[in-house]
Amino acid sequence: MESPSVTKVTVQSAPLVTYAIRSAALNETELSWFIDNDLTKALLSVQGVGQVNRIGGVDREVHVDLDPSTMASFGVPMGPGDEMFGPVTTRKLHSIQSVSKEMSVHPKTLRKLLQGAGWITADMANLTAERILFDASDLEAFVESTRDAIGWSEARTYMNASRAAWNTLSHEGFIPPAISSAEGSEGISPFYHRADLDHFLERLRAGAKADHAEASGWVSILDAAKKANCRYGEIIELLLDGKLENASAYSEKAGLEAIVVDLAEVREKTKLEDHGGLSLVDAGKSMGMQSLVLEKLIDRGYIAAEVAINPVNRCPQRIVRPQEIDRFESEYVSLFNYSKRLGIHFKEAKKNLEAVGVAPALTKEVVAATFYRWTDIRAAASKFAALNISFAFA
Question: How far is the C-alpha of 127 from the C-alpha of 249, rounded, in Å?
Answer without folding.
Answer: 49
